[in-house]
């Protein structure tokens, strides 16, 4: 028998159901140990240390509807994808995890499950532009209503809850203003209502923050970012402790097919093995760069939760292990200075996305968040978002300094 524990999408025996329960038990290992070992053990046939890439669309059956270890067709389950799901679930302290082809695919599926025509969603005023676009176009046309609030203000969240509110969508830290929401406080505000709290944990990663332990119903990740960590694979993942939600996610995976390719799942799983050591380096570098930026006259505001001046600093200190690798900066010279800075760095590349080993920066108002222009989520045009990588800090500081020196004083 294989020592690799597989998840059976449609359990057909007591034996397989026992395997499922075992595989879904959250690990008590340390974070780095679980990153490397949770969800997979070398099989007894060849002893492969790494998860094999099961590049097969279909799987041989022992008889009609008699599956070998629970797999029949990759759209409804594949061993490589399963291992990634179990690993990230373990890191979040979750019972269940489901992987998708992108963060937005995962978001869309969650919305479809939790929202129906006539329902209401509460959305943060600094949500990711793609999330807002999906709600404001696709789901509004479907009959879903939304209210935008400052989720860092729990009273605003509580006041926005209606009888038909089914979902409270929280990013913390937010994208791109790095605002912090007290997850536990919002979860308590939702108690006694029909509203489910879902946290987009992409900016923090499971290493820095575990929202389920603070009362969240489900947690979403764009695994494209810190979990994959190398800017070479797109993906999304949802974790939860709710069995019914997990079953619905599984149904949507198989019925609609927004699954990652097995090669993408392999790459993401390879990336997650070094998440802890990468995140520590991201945080080390970001803390130093934030302090440097805060000292410069060209900068009007540094938005970084690690600075004591940040309004969410105390909450972040309480619910996060460290403060993350993302910094946003507002420039005294306005939009012109912001764009000039974006084109003046030499080491830090002007590009969308974040969370990779290399440092990136972008101008959200004209790039990732341009769909929010004119809305309640409009991003200030003097703001630049920087994803701090794991390069040598001396090189990053030198690059930031020379770029700032090119701005008008």
UniProtKB/TrEMBL annotation:
Cofactor dependence is on: pyridoxal 5'-phosphate
Family named by the database record: Belongs to the trans-sulfuration enzymes family.
Keyword field: Amino-acid biosynthesis, Methionine biosynthesis, Pyridoxal phosphate
Q: What is its EC number?
A: 2.5.1.48
| One of the record's GO molecular function terms | pyridoxal phosphate binding
**What cellular component terms from Gene Ontology apply here?**
cytoplasm
Q: Which residues carry this modification: N6-(pyridoxal phosphate)lysine?
A: 225
Highest taxon of the lineage: Bacteria
What's the protein called, per UniProt? Cystathionine gamma-synthase
Q: What's an example Gene Ontology biological process for this entry?
A: transsulfuration
Organism annotation: Corynebacterium efficiens (strain DSM 44549 / YS-314 / AJ 12310 / JCM 11189 / NBRC 100395)
């Amino acid at each position: 028998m294989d020592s690799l524990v597989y998840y059976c999408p449609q359990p057909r025996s007591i034996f397989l159901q026992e395997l499922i329960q075992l595989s879904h038990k959250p690990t008590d290992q340390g974070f780095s140990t679980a990153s490397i070992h949770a969800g997979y053990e070398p099989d007894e046939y060849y002893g492969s240390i790494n998860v094999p890439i099961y590049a097969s669309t279909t799987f041989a059956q022992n008889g009609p509807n008699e599956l070998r270890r629970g797999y029949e067709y990759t759209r409804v389950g594949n061993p490589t994808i399963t291992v990634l799901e179990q690993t990230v679930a373990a890191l979040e302290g979750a019972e269940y995890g489901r992987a998708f082809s992108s963060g937005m695919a995962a978001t869309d599926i969650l919305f479809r499950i939790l929202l129906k025509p006539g329902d209401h969603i509460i959305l943060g005023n600094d949500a990711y532009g793609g999330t807002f676009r999906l709600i404001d176009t696709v789901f509004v046309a479907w009959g879903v209503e939304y209210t935008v609030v400052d989720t860092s203000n729990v009273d605003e969240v509580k006041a926005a809850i209606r009888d038909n509110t089914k979902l409270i969508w929280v990013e913390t830290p937010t994208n791109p203003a790095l605002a912090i929401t007290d997850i536990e406080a919002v979860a308590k505000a939702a108690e006694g209502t029909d509203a489910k709290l879902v946290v987009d944990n992409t900016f923090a990663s499971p290493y820095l923050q575990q929202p389920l332990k603070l009362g969240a119903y489900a947690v979403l990740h764009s695994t494209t970012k810190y979990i994959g960590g190398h800017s070479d694979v797109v993906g999304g993942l949802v974790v939860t402790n709710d069995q019914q939600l997990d079953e619905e996610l599984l149904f949507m995976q198989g019925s609609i097919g927004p699954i990652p390719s097995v090669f993408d799942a392999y790459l993401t799983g390879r990336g997650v093995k070094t998440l802890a050591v990468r995140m520590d380096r991201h945080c080390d570098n970001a803390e130093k760069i934030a302090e440097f930026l805060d000292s410069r006259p060209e900068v009007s505001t540094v938005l970084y939760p690690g600075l004591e001046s940040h309004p969410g600093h105390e909450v972040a200190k309480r619910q996060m292990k460290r403060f993350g690798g993302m910094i946003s900066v507002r420039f005294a010279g306005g939009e012109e200075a912001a764009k000039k800075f974006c084109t003046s760095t030499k080491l830090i590349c002007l590009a969308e996305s974040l969370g990779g080993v290399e440092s990136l920066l972008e101008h959200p108002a004209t790039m990732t968040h341009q769909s929010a222009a004119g809305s309640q989520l409009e991003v200030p045009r003097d703001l630049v978002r920087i994803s701090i990588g794991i390069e040598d800090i001396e090189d990053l500081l030198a690059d930031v300094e020379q770029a700032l020196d090119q701005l008008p004083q």
